[in-house]
Write a structure and sequence with these properties.
Layout lengths: L1 H21 L3 H14 L4 H13 L3 H14 L4 H13 L3 H14 L4 H13 L3 H14 L4 H13 L3 H14 L4 H13 L3 H13 L4 H17 L3 H8 L12 E2 L16 E5 L4 H8 L2 H8 L4 E6 L4 H7 L4 E4 L1 E5 L2 E5 L11 E4 L4 H4 L17 H10 L8 E5 L20 H4 L5 E4 L6 H11 L15 H10 L2 E5 L2 H8 L4 E6 L17 E6 L6 H17 L4
Helix pairs in contact: 1-2, 1-3, 2-3, 3-4, 4-5, 5-6, 5-7, 6-7, 7-8, 7-9, 8-9, 9-10, 9-11, 10-11, 11-12, 11-13, 12-13, 13-14, 15-23, 19-22
């Protein structure tokens, strides 16, 4: 009798948990599943429901443990494999996700959700033909499923065919007009082609539709880019805070046990910890606000600055009154967490903030951007060193070239032109081409040599990826740096050196202008037609020829 009563009690809690999941009340589902496990800790279904609830609530590490428990306890562990694959995907364990989704499909070829998830995983692994084959098979079974058409659109979009992607997104909406992901993806295509108002309207619409908390944070972050492209900086920076939402799977959390700074906080005489975020280039870009912060702190305040280790020498020289150290990022329970190890006495910190959050107060409009030419200070002795070394390069103005990022994958590839399209610039007579590109670029240098007969001079004795202090000095010794937005172009511009920045149409850092408000010394060349870099490269080559003709004293 006792066993029967326990079974009935467990069943009641499971019914309540499943009903709560159906109603998307994940807290209630979590509580009911825990009550069921209090009654029977070996109940695989309860572990499965708890896993789903924890995942929906953004607790990915505990969700993984619950899925594993359910997988071990259920009679048919394949029931959990799809959920485990989805979680592995969110945790950036793409190869494991692929294996799990394939396992589900091997048992049930009609498992449409698993097919769609497998296609998404293959897309992220840049296995585009395989992903399309998976979707073709699934669409043949279920042609009215909007998720399949939407994913097909994302795949062709990443391959540069946005017009076909729009057809697939609209096909998804023809089957479900409230399918938020398709509306959101249409907004991204409109942004790519400069239809900012249309993009904003679609993104707003998508945010009113049914989405998961993670998807909502992603869409809010995308809306921030659109608003910044429109020049609505206040709304853009407010929405940019979505990057810090714990449910956003692509974000980084900050482990700092001190009060968080908020706009309008009186900083006079206080100690403020500012933590760099995103990539190296972003730390430089966002760091242009630091002089304003120092002014707000006043002579009795203290700026404590945590930056990427490679930036320490350059930032220490540039902000000598600040206390500097390196931040460190770890994967803790499947979550990217940034720490500040050099802070030994947290009580000395009055407030802390991620660096970009400062823009909400100090850059609410274009008028708030200063006209300071130089934010960073390169080492004068190393500048003199590089001026002497560059005398060994071929004659003519010394032009540093950068053509790619180390993060070249998927849709990001569309923000950079193929190297072959640099030919008009490389063939400009009378210039001395200096390789400023970090990472492996032997293939491009060899191509320029064999196909164009152009030698791009390699500066000796410098690690262009890691020795950023020397990169700053070299940029000061060059006459001009030309390239896409990356760490090096940001450093050169922040040092006040001439930079010609090549920019895709949808680049939000231009803030709705044709320039870079962050860097007065940078001139921007915008690719007006996505994917068609030839006119932009021709414009740069023509202006470069004028620079050579004008001579050094013009």
């Amino acid at each position: 009798m006792a066993a029967q009563a326990q079974l009935e009690a467990v069943t009641r809690q499971l019914k309540a948990a499943v009903a709560a999941l159906s109603a998307e009340d994940f807290e209630a589902a979590n509580s009911a599943a825990l009550r069921a496990l209090d009654l029977d800790e070996k109940c695989g279904v309860a572990w499965h429901v708890l896993a789903i609830a924890r995942e929906k609530l953004g607790d990915l590490s505990n969700s993984l443990r619950c899925y594993q428990a359910a997988h071990d306890l259920l009679d048919d562990p394949e029931l959990v494999a799809g959920d485990l694959g989805r979680l592995a995907y969110r945790l950036n364990m793409k190869e494991a996700a692929e294996t799990l989704f394939r396992r589900v499909l091997s048992q049930n070829p009609l498992a449409i959700e698993a097919a769609n998830n497998l296609a998404c995983t293959l897309k992220d692994l840049e296995k585009y033909p395989e992903a399309i084959d998976v979707l073709k098979t699934a669409i043949a079974y279920t042609p009215n499923d909007p998720s399949l058409w939407n994913t097909l659109g994302t795949i062709v979009s990443e391959q540069g065919d946005s017009s076909t992607a729009m057809i697939f997104y609209n096909e998804a909406l023809s089957h479900d007009p409230s399918f938020a992901k398709a509306v959101y993806n249409i907004a991204k295509v409109k942004l790519l082609y400069g239809d900012l108002i249309g993009a904003l309207e679609d993104c707003n619409t998508a945010l009113t539709m049914k989405t998961t908390p993670d998807e909502s944070a992603m869409m809010q972050l995308a809306r921030s880019s659109i608003q910044l492209c429109l020049g609505d900086l206040k709304a853009g920076w407010d929405d940019y805070e979505a990057r810090l939402d714990p449910v956003f799977s692509g974000g980084t959390q900050f482990a700092v046990n001190r009060p968080r700074w908020v706009p309008q906080t009186d900083l006079s005489g206080k100690s403020l910890l500012v933590i760099g975020e995103q990539g190296l280039g972003d730390e430089i870009l966002f760091g242009t606000v630091l002089p304003d912060v120092l002014a707000a702190l006043g002579p009795n305040g203290q700026l404590v600055l945590a930056v990427e280790p490679r930036l320490l020498p350059l930032m220490s020289r540039s902000f000598p009154s600040a206390k500097l150290g390196a931040h460190a990022t770890y994967d803790i329970n499947q979550q990217s967490v940034r720490l500040v190890p050099f802070i030994t006495n947290p009580d000395e910190i009055d407030y802390w903030t991620p660096m970009a959050s400062l823009l909400r107060q100090y850059r609410p409009s274009l008028e708030a951007f200063g006209k300071t030419d130089r934010i960073l200070t390169a080492d004068p002795a190393r500048i003199a060193h590089w001026q002497a070394v560059l005398c060994q390069a071929p004659p003519g103005p010394k032009i540093g070239l950068l053509w790619k990022s180390l993060k070249m994958f998927g849709a990001r590839n569309q923000a950079f032109s193929p190297f072959a399209q640099w030919a008009p610039i490389l063939q400009t007579p009378g210039i001395s081409l200096i390789n400023f590109q970090y990472g492996d670029c032997d293939e491009e240098l060899a191509w320029a040599r064999s196909e164009l007969g152009i030698e791009i001079w390699q500066p000796p004795g410098i690690d262009l990826k890691n020795d950023l202090d020397d990169v700053a000095a070299l940029s000061c010794a060059l006459d001009l740096t030309i390239g896409f937005a990356n760490a090096t172009t940001n450093i050169a511009a922040a040092c006040g050196n001439p930079v010609w920045l090549i920019s895709p149409l949808d680049a939000w850092p231009r803030l709705g202008t044709k320039q870079m408000p962050w860097y007065p010394s940078a001139e921007v060349f915008v690719c007006e037609n996505p994917g068609d870099w030839a006119p932009t490269m021709a414009d740069i080559a023509a202006k470069l020829a004028q620079l050579v003709k004008a001579g050094p004293n013009d």
